[in-house]
Structures are given as C-alpha cells and as structure tokens.
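User: Before I run my own analysis I want an independent prediction to cross-check against. Here's the chain; please return only the structure tokens and, at the end, one sentence I can use as a sanity check.
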Amino acid sequence: MILQYVLDPEKAQRFLEIMRKGFVRNPVFAAISFSIVVGLIISAIIIYKIVNTKKEKKELLTIKDSFKNKVNQKNLSAREKQILFYICDNLLNNKNHILTLLTNPVVFSIYSQIILNEKIVTAQELAALRMKLGINQRKVFNVLYSTADLTIGTSVKISFLKNYYFAGIISDIDEFGVSINIDKDISLEKNTPVLIEIDNQYGLFLIHSHVIGIHASIIKVEHSEKIEKFQKRKFFRKNIQLPVTIMKNEEDKGIHSYMLDLSGGGAKIYYPKNDFKTGDKIFVEISFNKKEDISLPCIIKRISKNDSSISVAFIEINESIRDKIVKAMLK
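Assistant: Structure tokens:
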C-alpha cells in the first residue's frame, strides 16, 4: 500500500498536497506525521528489496540447476563437466550468461579467459571443450578467441625460435592442437615456441603456442587462447631510409640504425644483430627531421637473415602520427 504512493506519481502528488495543507494548519503534528510516513516508506522499500533479492537468488539457483542438468546430458568428460560447474558455481551471476554459456562463443570466452588466467584450466582443455560444445566458429573471422576457431585450409605464416620463418596451410584441427603443413621438412624439438600469423580482411592475428609434434613437413602446435589482434590498414609501402633508434623499453638508450621501408602500419629496419625473436615488443624511435622524433611501440613480425632486417608492426598509433608517417612517405 505504502509503495503504491511511492511508485504512482499521481498518488505521490496528492500525498504531498495533503502534507502541505497539514503543515499550514498544525506544523508540529504534520512534521511528526511526515516523519512516521517516511519511516514506513523506507521500511517498505527495504522489505521489498529483501523479498526481491531472495526471489532473484531462488530464480538464479533454479537456472543454475537447469544449466547443470544440461551439462550432465552432454557427452563430456568428468573434467570438462568440472570446468563448466566451476564457472557456474563461482563466476556466473548473470542469468543471460548462464542460459547462453553453452552456445555463445563470446560469453564462453569471457569466462574461459578468467579461469585460464587463474590457471584452473589449460588452453588445450578449453579448445577441446569449445569443439565438443560446437561453439568454435569455423568461418572467416573478425574475432578469434581460440585456435579451435581456425579452419582447415587457412593460410598462415609461422616462425620458430629467432629467425626461422615459413608460409604454411592448416591441414588438420583436433581436440589436441592444430596441424600446419609448411611443405618443407625441418627438425624441431617439442615445446619449441612458435608464433603463428594470420592476415585476413579483418586484421592481423598473432597466435602464441608451442610445438607438440612434428612429422616431415607437418608441424602440430598445441591449442592456444593467447591471441593478439592488430587492426589492418591498407597502406602502400615505400622504400625510404630514415634514422631510427631501436629500444627494448622506453628507458633503454637503444641502438641506432636506419629504416629500409615504411608504411602506415609498420616498417622494415636494418638490424644485423641476433638478439630478438618474432613476437617481441620493442620501441622504435623514428627521426623524421632534426627537430622531430616519434617513438612508437611495435611488435616484431619477421626476422630476415637475407638482408639483416626486422619487420615490425606499429601497435598503438593515433591518426595524427599516422598522417606524419604518410606525409614523410609522399615527400
């Protein structure tokens, strides 16, 4: 009854008018009455919230029980069910997320990243679970959550250790990992770190993983959910020589060198040393003229022994700096 006056504007207006007239006739009595009414309203709101909270908790528990029943009906291992039950019991408080966790790759990825960072699961376990649930995308992607989302026949570039770099094609994907045919027999040890590069119309994707098997020209890498995406811009590339300083971090004094070519999205730099590997993040300071130097965070995409160079992609670059780069290329 009291809440009706709070929630209904017309009733609330009438109540305030009655109280105003009361103050005119008998201010003391009206003040006491008003205080009592306010106290009753606050009490009613508190009771309403308590009842509503209990109702929501009960509804949430019902939805969670339904979720667990669905999980139990699926053809999953005990470990896979344990992973889903952990997410349900410890992380899920959003009803829509509970209802869509088993079918929506975006929702699944939100919680998979949390438990992956907490080291409760491995990327291989999550990838296998994605495949069993059927929520791996298997299409041309603008977002890549896991290597389980990749498709057979996708062209990739793959690099090992510091300088080995090959083009390849994904030949198979199973619950353990991704097989890549590089059409060339090489010798690698298990657990060798690899960096896989995929370039499509939506962007540049860099996947960090390691070798779990090799047979002739087929390299199998473990599933990974450690994936970085960089926006892809269609810029022309120009052979241009500009002084640069290569730094491992912003405080590093750096090594002086020069640029071999430049685009709006990256650069190729002369670097004869052998102390970087693909995937390393560095800072490159470009000297456009004597008065202006620009320092940019970059990631090393490629290392070439042939011309003693490294190819880098700019990670964070605003449009004003990009304009300066393009103008330098047009001179």
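Sanity check: The first helix runs from residue 2 to 7.
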